[in-house]
């Protein structure tokens, strides 16, 4: 999907404030909470192994109740690495100090031939 210029500009203005990790870096993290922030229908079509689903629409509302450890390493991913930057920035502002965004997101994993779960 081609993103609109205003959305891309917004994401790019926030990206420098967020730590990003590659798929290789993600795999090297010993203990990580991997959160898929995409929409329900995207999650249903396929996801990364060991991910949990907490969509962009509810993640700020529900994260403290579900995952209260603000020191836990958390990696967020979306479809292509834009929405997860936004969500990571918000979680940082909520006190989650070890939140990262996955470069390339789910589409990047598929393009790289990495394992995904589709059932
Ligand atoms: O396309 S996106 O998931 O990076 S917003």
TrEMBL record:
Alphabetical UniProt keywords: Transferase
GO molecular function terms attached to this record: thiosulfate-cyanide sulfurtransferase activity
Ranges where the Rhodanese domain occurs: 28-118
Domain of life assignment: Bacteria
Pfam families linked to this entry: Rhodanese (PF00581)
PROSITE patterns (alphabetical): RHODANESE_3
PANTHER family: THIOSULFATE SULFURTRANSFERASE PSPE, THIOSULFATE SULFURTRANSFERASE RDL2, MITOCHONDRIAL-RELATED
UniProt-recorded name of the protein: Sulfurtransferase
């Amino acid at each position: 999907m081609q993103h609109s210029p205003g959305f891309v500009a917004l994401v790019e203005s926030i990206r420098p404030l967020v730590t990003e990790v590659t798929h290789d870096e993600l795999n090297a993290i010993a203990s990580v909470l991997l959160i898929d922030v995409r929409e329900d229908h995207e999650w249903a079509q396929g996801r990364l192994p060991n991910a949990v689903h907490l969509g962009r629409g509810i993640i700020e509302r529900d994260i403290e109740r579900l995952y209260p450890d603000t020191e836990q390493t958390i990696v967020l991913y979306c479809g292509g690495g834009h929405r997860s930057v936004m969500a990571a920035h918000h979680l940082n502002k909520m006190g989650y100090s070890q939140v990262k965004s996955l470069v390339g997101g789910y589409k990047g994993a598929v393009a790289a031939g990495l394992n995904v779960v589709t059932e």
